[in-house]
Specification:
alpha+beta, Aminopeptidase, nine-stranded mixed beta sheet, six-stranded antiparallel beta sheet, 15 strands
Length: 261
C-alpha cells in the first residue's frame, strides 16, 4: 500500500490511498487540473515502472503527478506533458554524433549506487547560480538525505576532465525503465552540451542493461525551457494522455502542437 499525502483537484483536497497494482482508486475529472503526491515507504522496480507508466515522477523520496505547473502568483497554471521514449526506437542522429564527438576526450564513470559527496555539492551550487529557472535547492532535495533510507535504485553518470568532475546525471532505475532525476554541470563547459551528453550516456547505459523505457520528465506548453528533452527525436517520443482519467490514460505519439499555446 502506498500512502497518499494529498490529492488536489481544482483546489479541493481529499485523503485516500492508492494500491500499487490492485484495489479501487479514485477517478479524476479530466476537465479539472490535478496534482497528487504519494509518499511510499518502498518502491520496488516493478512498482516504479508501473507509476512511471501512469505519468508519475519521483520528487525526492516522494512521487507525484500533475497536469499543470501551479505558480504562487496570479498567472494561470501552465500545462505540462509527461514524456517517455521506447529505447528500441531511438536512433543516432547527426546532432547526437556531434555531441559525442565534442565530448570524446572526457571520462565517464558510473556511480552505482549514487552517493552524495562534497565535490558534487560544490558543482551543483555553481550550476544553480548559472541557471535562469527554478531548480532544487540541493541535490539531497532532489534525491535523498545523506545517511537516510533511499526507496529508489539510484545511480549516476559522472563525467570528468582529468580528475575534475564537470557534470553529473542522476537517475532512478526500475525493472524495465529509467527516469532521469537531476542533471547539472560546470557552466564553463556549456558549449559541450553537457546535459544532452548525459542523456546520451544514460541511454547507452539503458541499452547495455536491456531496459525498455527512458523517462526524461515533462515539457511545458508555451515554455521552451524543457524542450531539450525532445532532442532524442520528437518522431519517436510519446506523451501521456490522461483520458478517460489520469489513472487509466495512455501513451500517444508526441505532437509538436502540444507545445503551442
Amino acid at each position: 500500500m502506498i500512502e497518499v499525502l494529498f490529492l488536489s483537484v481544482n483546489g479541493k483536497y481529499f485523503n485516500r490511498t492508492l494500491c500499487s497494482f490492485f484495489g479501487e482508486v479514485m477517478l479524476y475529472n479530466i476537465h479539472m487540473h490535478y496534482y497528487e503526491v504519494l509518499q511510499p515507504t518502498q518502491c520496488r522496480g516493478e512498482e516504479f515502472d508501473f507509476l512511471l507508466s501512469l505519468g508519475w515522477y519521483p520528487m525526492g523520496q516522494n512521487i507525484f503527478t500533475t497536469s499543470h505547473l501551479f505558480r504562487d502568483d496570479d498567472k494561470l497554471p501552465m500545462r505540462v506533458h509527461w514524456l517517455r521514449y521506447p529505447l528500441a526506437s531511438v536512433g543516432e542522429k547527426a546532432s547526437h554524433r556531434r555531441i559525442r564527438s565534442r565530448s570524446r576526450h572526457f571520462k565517464m564513470e558510473l556511480a552505482d549506487p549514487f552517493i552524495h559527496s562534497a565535490e558534487l555539492d560544490i558543482l551543483y551550487e555553481k550550476y544553480l547560480d548559472s541557471i535562469d529557472f527554478d531548480g532544487y535547492a540541493t541535490i539531497e532535495d532532489a534525491t535523498f538525505r545523506g545517511g537516510s533510507l533511499n526507496i529508489y535504485k539510484s545511480k549516476a553518470i559522472i563525467i570528468r576532465e582529468g580528475d575534475q568532475i564537470i557534470s553529473c546525471g542522476i537517475f532512478h532505475e526500475g525493472a524495465t525503465s529509467v527516469a532521469s532525476i537531476l542533471h547539472f554541470y560546470d557552466p564553463q563547459y556549456r558549449r559541450f552540451s553537457p546535459g544532452k551528453y548525459l542523456i546520451l550516456m544514460t541511454l547507452d547505459y539503458c541499452r547495455l542493461q536491456g531496459l525498455t523505457w527512458y523517462y526524461p520528465g515533462y515539457v511545458i506548453r508555451g515554455n521552451g525551457k524543457m524542450n531539450y528533452k525532445l532532442f532524442l527525436g520528437q518522431e519517436v517520443a510519446q506523451y501521456y494522455h490522461p483520458q478517460p482519467d489520469p489513472l487509466s490514460g495512455s501513451w500517444l505519439p508526441f505532437r509538436p502542437d502540444l507545445l503551442s499555446l
